[in-house]
Amino acid sequence: MPLQPHPEQAKLSTRLRRIGRSADTKFEGELFRFINPVFSKFSDIISGDGALHAAGRWNVTGAAHLSYTAMSPTTALEEVLVPVRYFNLPESKALPRVLVAVKFRASRVLDLREGKIRQTLRLSQSTIRGLDWREDNFQGREALTQAWGFAFAHVGRYEAVIVPSAADAKGTNVLIFPQNLRSGSDLSVVTEVKYTRI
Fold first, then answer.
1. Burial of 33 (C-beta count, 10 Å sphere; 0-12/13-18/19+)
2. Element at 26 (helix H, strand E)
3. Spatial separation of the C-alpha atoms in residues 135 and 195, rounded to whole Å
4. Is residue 189 domain-resident?
5. How far is Cα 78 from Cα 84, in angstroms, rounded to an integer?
6. Quick check: is 54 in a domain?
């Protein structure tokens, strides 16, 4: 059953249009993901297709291609463990996983670690880190963070958004929207995952 759209969706879009390109920043560096080995092909890692099949803090199912990455392996691991901890399952249920690194370069990035940007958008750090998006979805509603994710992908057409991690108090995530990558931007896997028989 489709989720009821967030009631402030139009307002979020308006706020995002209002800041325009003034908050754009560049990003270049390595990012990390712990992935299910089933999806360890080069194309799977960078496609963002997973967001078309499963909801997350910043997306509803099928809304946009979105690749969740982290600035450190530690944060990437904490992100993987969130679902099993939420449902009080053994952490082993999150395994096996493969750690991969991606290179990312982009010129149209929004950094939500910046207080002035959050203030302009009226998006608090407590919402970013603490909102129980699953509970909203269980109630049949799109969560506020998911509505923002839709706006970033479709209204702002951002290549990526940097956000404080909800799983790791000291960590940072980078949400990459592969369909929004501009000319000169790059998203690639550092080392391809290869399996060999012994």
1. buried
2. strand 25-35
3. 38
4. no
5. 11
6. yes
- Model pTM above 0.70: yes
In a domain, residue 192? The reply is no
Q: Could you read off the pLDDT of 125-163 as tens digits, one per residue?
A: 999 999 999 999 999 999 999 999 999 999 999 999 999
What mean pLDDT is predicted for residues 184-191? 96
**Domain span at residue 93?**
13-183
From CA 92, how far away is CA 152, in angstroms rounded? 34
Say what the pLDDT of residue 161 is. 98
Q: Using an 8 Å Cβ cutoff, are 146 and 133 in contact?
A: yes
Question: Is there a domain that residue 172 lies in?
Answer: yes
The CATH number of whichever domain residue 18 belongs to comes to: 3.90.175
| Residue 108: strand, helix, or coil | strand
CA end-to-end span of the chain, whole Å? 46
Q: Would you say how long the chain is, in residues?
A: 198
Look up tokens 């080069």; give the residue: 42
The number of domains in the chain is 1
Mean pLDDT score of the chain, rounded to an integer?
Answer: 96
Q: Please tell me the number of Cα atoms within 13 Å of 142 on its side-chain side.
A: 22
- The rounded distance, in Å, linking the Cα atoms of 116 and 153 is 21
For residue 16, give both structure tokens: 């995002």
